[in-house]
Amino acid sequence: xxxxxxxxxxxxxxxxxxxxxxxxxxxxxxxxxxxxxxxxxxxxxxxxxxxxxxxxxxxxxxxxxxxxxxxxxxxxxxxxxxxxxxxxxxxxxxxxxxxxxxxxxxxxxxxxxxxxxxxxxxxxxxxxxxxxxxxxxxxxxxxxxx
Length: 146
Description:
Layout (H helix, E strand, L loop, with lengths): L9 E7 L2 E7 L7 E7 L1 E2 L35 H8 L5 E2 L16 H34 L4
Antiparallel strand pairs: 1-2, 2-3, 4-5
């Protein structure tokens, strides 16, 4: 949605008090639209901010004209300061990742009964077929023509 536009596109990334907010201006109207707002983001300290672009097999031109970085001064309680120093890996509270669905609810009694019943019927059916095939094989093996 930002390709081949006749105007510049802008992106604001803001991280304040464990809230990561991304806003975009891709219409050229200088009006910010919310893109994503994630509370509970805990980022470690001491890392660097970098930009890059990877397009795979496409030959595209990605120009980053400028970066404006600000360090905001936010008052923190001593507990918040202690919690933020203990972060070693980036973590998001209450984030559901793809492939991590909620655990399945247990089966009802009727469903469990039907599964067991039809499993037993199938086992009995397989045993009966096996006995019939074995008896036919026994009859065939007793017949000898000398």
